[in-house]
Amino acid sequence: MRKIVLGLAVSLDGYIEGPNGEYDWCFTDQDYGLNEFFTRIDSVFVGRKTYEMALAEDGQESWMPKMKEYIFSNTLTEISPKKTLISGDIEAQVREIKNRKGKDIWLFGGAELTNTLMNLELVDEIWLSIHPILLGGGKPLFSSLKERKWLTLIDSKVYESGLISLKYECKWG
After folding, report:
1. 3-state DSSP call for residue 105?
2. How many beta carbons lie within 10 A of that of residue 108, not counting itself?
């Protein structure tokens, strides 16, 4: 079965965006393990807000390799024809996608989508790139978890820039 891997940048105080939605604080000076990560995935899960933000930035060179994109929204009715819209009962649809043949799935965008999939116990790994910055406000990563979630550390790496990469396995049940 394919794994869903939540992988994203987060500030030391737990935010994935600054107070005005900015993410200019994310380090881009080196790879930080992304190229290796991209070899193990072939699909990405993205929430509506992240999808719309990416549309607004259209025209910029993409830093992500080509992969199957699933857009989660109960309000969008039309998206790019190269992407798949997921709405309604997302639990059943995500379980079905996880059972398909293929590589792992990257849960990339959307605090709402992240919290929903965490509460449904569908996330298998968490890979956080913790940036050495305190934003003091913004969009928190985990804002609506229903209960405690115990994790098992499977890897960590400290970079000279001060960024710390932490990888955890989620154990459910």
Report:
1. strand
2. 20
Length of the chain: 173
β-strands 104-109, 41-47 pairing? parallel
**Phi and psi at residue 111, to the nearest 5°:** -65, -35
In a 3-state reduction of DSSP, which class is residue 92? helix
CA distance 22 to 10: 12
DSSP structure string for 61-86: PP-SPP-EEEEE-SS-----TTSEEE
Map out the domains of the chain with their CATH numbers: 15-165 (3.40.430.10)
C-alpha distance from residue 169 to each of 8, 26, 39, 149, 150 (Å):
15, 24, 19, 11, 9
**pLDDT more than 90, % of the chain:** 73
Does pTM surpass 0.70?
yes
What tens digit of pLDDT does each residue of 141-163 get? 998 899 888 999 999 999 999 99
In angstroms, the CA 62 to CA 77 distance is 24
For the stretch 37-59, pLDDT in tens is 999 999 999 988 878 776 666 54
Torsion of the alpha carbons at 168, 155, 12 and 20, rounded to the nearest 10: -70
